[in-house]
Amino acid sequence: MQRYRFDQKVIVVEAIVEMIKRGVPASEMDIYLSRMGPVDLDMLQQCMDEVYTYIAHEDARQQGAYQERAVA
């Protein structure tokens, strides 16, 4: 098994996105990542907040675009 260090923002964000794609719930993200290597938990929480906020904004933007097409 390959080990990683989750101590850089770019690496943590990429790991979060990959875990989301694999269906890992947010509440278990730290457990899964810590099995692969050391995790900066403060950074993980900050990155999770940013990733999930981005996803929520994208969903809202896409929903708005869908509603605009439905009206037109």
Task: Give the SSE layout.
Elements: H1 9-21, H2 29-36, H3 41-71
Helix pairs in contact: 1-3
Can you tag this structure with a few keywords?
mainly alpha, DUF982 domain-containing protein, 3 helices, 72 residues, 72% helix, elongated
Q: What does this protein structure show overall?
A:
It is a single chain. The chain has 72 residues and is mostly helical. It has one domain. It has 3 helices and no strands. Helix 1 crosses helix 3. The radius of gyration is 15 Å and the shape is elongated. The termini are far apart. The model has no long low-confidence stretch (mean pLDDT 89).
Q: What is the arithmetic mean of pLDDT? A: 89
Oligomer: single chain
Task: Note the main sheet.
Answer: none
Number of strands: 0
Low-confidence stretches: none
Rg result: 15 Å
Instruction: Determine the number of helices (DSSP H or I, runs of at least 4 residues).
Output: 3
What share of the residues does DSSP label as strand, in percent? Answer: under 5%
Q: What's the SSE pattern?
A: HHH
How many separate structural domains?
A: 1
Q: Name the shape in a single word.
A: elongated
Q: Approximately how much helix is present in the residues?
A: over 70%
Ends apart, CA distance between termini: 53 Å
Content-based structural category: mainly alpha
